[in-house]
Design a protein that fits this description.
The chain is an alpha/beta fold and 383 residues long. It folds into two domains: 134 residues, Aspartate Aminotransferase, domain 1 (Alpha-Beta Complex); 233 residues, Type I PLP-dependent aspartate aminotransferase-like (Major domain) (Aspartate Aminotransferase, domain 2, 3-Layer(aba) Sandwich), CATH 3.40.640.10. It has 14 helices and 14 strands. It has a seven-stranded mixed beta sheet, with helices on both faces. The longest helix has 19 residues.
């Protein structure tokens, strides 16, 4: 299926084939990529910086003070000891592989996690055991059989970008032995889930285990790049011995300037998160009233709907036409990782209005009545 190519109009709309459409695609949950003050910081940097790129890895001649400034800011915002920037969010996970190969004896991994975590696990060369999606008991059963003298890491996303499911980190902390530490891909959760996801667990000395976060600056932050946030011993190990990190060029300096400004917005405007939470609740209520919500109490801005595995090109075109005729951009995807279903993935933002969400709900109801679509949840997928 050829993907449509929209052009951005404003925070809520795109243009496609001559139509102005509501946009529920992407991962710009707070729409920070649209804020004039943030974009202007990138423009000012382009005016003042003598080059577009550092044009080399940071371990050779490509380091710049703006990267150190952004790392310091991310460390403060994420509440960790240290932060290490990477050229993209995907590279943040890949850059962990060299550390894992030395620091761990094996890996537990959510069966539905992002391909970047799977690639990192593969590059580490360590034994890998899969546990059922977000299933604490499954992970606990596997970890109970681990040798006493071994140290394993559990790899998961905080918020899964395909269906919006959220890992119950605090339950994992309580149920898993102290010999299991955590690597949490916080690409979608960063700036969205808030402090409660990280700080409500067992904080006794028994639970003083390593937790490493990987971040994407291309989603809620609305810029580009990635980062590893965690203990200084981890970031120093990657700085000194990480081949993936050492071998790649950082993202352009003007985007680092924009990221700094964006994180300032996140730090000083808590109302953005409140607005997003309100819209998530509103969308959940709309879907529930229409009989389209499988699972109540969702906290994430992502809602996905299964459209089928054996759709013909004609039926896909009919789906697309129906969504566009309703004034909504058809954000249909087939996610990497072996899922065959065509998914209509919608992401609510802090900028969407009540009428936007009501229109989306009406369109989803039409799709359900005409094509039998239903909410897609990763927990429904069998191993």
């Amino acid at each position: 299926m050829k993907r449509p190519t929209p052009e951005t109009i404003d925070e809520r709309h795109v243009a496609l084939e001559g139509k102005k459409l509501l946009y529920f695609g992407g991962c710009d949950y707070l729409r920070l990529s649209h804020k004039a003050e943030i974009r202007l910081s990138a423009v000012e940097s382009l005016r003042n910086e003598p080059s577009l790129s550092s044009s080399a890895s940071r371990t050779t001649t490509g380091d710049r003070s703006i990267y150190l400034q952004l790392e310091k800011q991310l460390t403060a915002f994420s509440g960790t000891e240290d932060t290490l920037l990477t050229g993209a969010g995907y590279l943040a996970n890949l850059s962990l592989s060299s550390y894992l190969s030395k620091a761990a004896d094996g890996l537990l991994i959510d069966e539905q996690c992002h391909p970047s975590l799977r690639d990192a696990a593969k590059l580490s060369g360590l034994p890998v055991r899969n546990y059922r999606h977000c299933d604490v008991k499954s992970a606990a059963e596997i970890s109970s059989g681990l040798p006493d003298n071994q140290h394993w890491f559990l790899l998961s996303e905080s918020m899964f970008g395909l269906d919006g499911s959220i890992m119950p980190l605090n339950a994992f902390r309580k149920m898993l032995p102290a010999a299991v530490s955590f690597i949490i891909d916080d690409a979608h959760g960063f700036g969205v889930l808030g402090d409660n996801f990280w700080n409500e667990g067992d904080t006794s000395s028994r639970d003083a285990r390593t937790v490493i976060k990987t971040l994407s600056l291309a989603k809620t932050v609305g810029c580009h790049g990635g980062a590893i946030a965690g203990p200084l011993k981890v970031t120093n190990s990657i700085r000194n011995q990480g081949a993936t990190w050492a071998g790649h060029t950082p993202f352009p300096m003007h985007l680092a300037h924009a990221a700094i400004k964006s994180i300032e917005w996140l730090s000083t405007r808590p109302e953005l998160g409140s607005q997003l939470s309100h819209r998530i609740d509103l969308m959940s209520n709309i879907l529930s009233s229409l009989g389209l919500l499988k699972k109540a109490g969702l906290m994430s801005p992502v809602f996905s709907f299964r459209l089928g595995e054996t759709l013909t090109e004609e039926s896909i075109q009919a789906l697309r036409d129906m969504v566009m005729d309703s004034g909504i951009y058809p954000s249909f995807i087939r996610y990497p990782g072996g899922l065959n279903n065509l998914i209509f993935r919608v992401a609510i933002s802090s900028s969407h209005q009540k009428g936007d969400l009501q229109k989306l709900g009406k369109t989803l109801l039409q799709l359900s009545q005409s094509f039998g679509c239903e909410q897609f949840l990763l927990s429904d997928q069998m191993s």
